[in-house]
Write a structure and sequence with these properties.
The chain is an alpha/beta fold. The protein has two domains: 127 residues, Rossmann fold (3-Layer(aba) Sandwich); 108 residues, no CATH class. α2 runs parallel beside α7. Bound molecules: iron/sulfur cluster (SF4) (2 copies). One iron/sulfur cluster binds next to α1 and α5. One iron/sulfur cluster (SF4) binds next to α1 and α5.
């Protein structure tokens, strides 16, 4: 019997999600024996023309990591959608826009001005910016179009399943691939991670007092955090109450608070808004002045609360006055 065909592909990606696949170690060899990997640009030599030549739906599953910021990434995403029975948005960039999505807090014009004109290391006396088409010595050169904003994968194609994480832990990658191979997939649109919040499984949860009250926000690099006590109880912002479980507590294990890479818990649209609501209930402040004092200690709240999710959040992008 023919083996199911699988594609692993990166769009706007740092490569960490591909690394998570490699981190499956010897299990990867078992998976590789059970499937036919027909595309994995980071690891093997494949030609996109071979992909274009495949029949629609010929690929059983495509694991797509990275965000979409340019026309080439969109084209590849659409090609994979056409050729695949199932698309798995793999990692926080594909699911939510990821850390590159923080670029949506500025504009394409500001990015180009800084990168090609204003940064102190740039020498560009003619003020040239990249063009999608240019001619050199009679030859036409083309570059992908850089879009106005970063998109999550489901902004440009229909996505069947989601596996968040920056990157997803190897055991959840194994679970996702096994579910496809064994035909044990949950309903379309499911996020392949627990429905509960990280706090529900966090070992530090037991250390929480009955009622947490914060008089002061402390930043993780400014204090020596107790390794067994709930970060919030120590006044350190931890996004565990608003973040989906499933990461394996990698950050907690090195005494770092949750930064939210697994995205919102089931039923929550915007994890940043959810956390602000949770925080409002634990602030120990009576007057407006006291509230302002504590809130002002929260440095870069948008960058902190939406580190992995600006494009998929209610914010989506910077609003520019026309
Ligand atoms: S989710 Fe994280 S590890 Fe994966 S491509 Fe994005 S930044 Fe890299
Ligand atoms: S707030 Fe953070 S440290 Fe505290 S229980 Fe939740 S996940 Fe754990």
């Amino acid at each position: 019997m023919a083996k199911p065909k699988i594609a692993i592909c990166w769009l706007g990606s740092c490569g960490g999600c591909d690394e998570a696949v490699v981190d499956m170690n010897e299990v990867l060899l078992r998976v590789a024996a059970a499937v036919d990997i027909i595309l994995w640009p980071v690891a093997m030599d494949f030609k996109y023309d071979s992909l274009k030549g495949m029949k629609n739906g010929e690929i059983a599953l495509s694991l797509v990591n990275g965000h979409v910021r340019n026309s080439e990434q969109e084209e590849i995403a659409k090609l994979l959608r056409e050729k695949s029975q199932l698309i798995l948005a793999f990692g926080s960039c594909a699911c939510l826009g990821g850390t590159p999505g923080l670029a949506n807090l500025t504009t394409k014009e500001d990015i180009f001005s800084w990168v090609y004109r204003d940064a102190p290391t740039v020498v560009n006396p003619n003020g040239n910016y990249p063009q999608t088409t240019s001619s050199v010595n009679g030859k036409v050169l083309t570059l992908p179009e850089f879009y106005d904003r970063v998109y999550a994968l489901n902004d440009v194609i229909d996505v069947d399943y989601y596996l968040p994480g920056c990157p997803p832990p190897p055991y959840s990658v194994m679970y996702a691939v096994s579910a496809v191979l064994e035909d044990k997939l949950p309903p379309k649109g499911s996020i392949l991670a627990p429905h509960r919040a990280l706090c529900d499984s966090c070992k530090r949860n037991q250390s929480k007092p009955d009622k947490i009250s914060i008089k002061e926000i402390r930043r993780i690099h400014e204090v020596e955090a107790d390794p067994d006590t709930c970060f919030l109880a120590q006044g350190i912002i931890c996004l565990g109450p608003a973040t989906r479980d499933g990461c394996g507590e990698a950050c907690m294990s090195i005494n770092m608070p949750c930064r939210g890479c697994f995205g919102p818990v089931e039923g929550v649209e915007d994890s940043g808004a959810k956390f602000i609501s949770a925080m409002a209930s634990i602030l120990d402040a009576e007057s407006d002045e006291e509230v302002a004092t504590v809130v002002n200690q929260f440095v870069d709240p948008v960058g902190y609360l939406y580190r992995f999710s600006v494009p998929a959040s209610m914010l989506q992008k910077k609003r520019v006055e026309k």
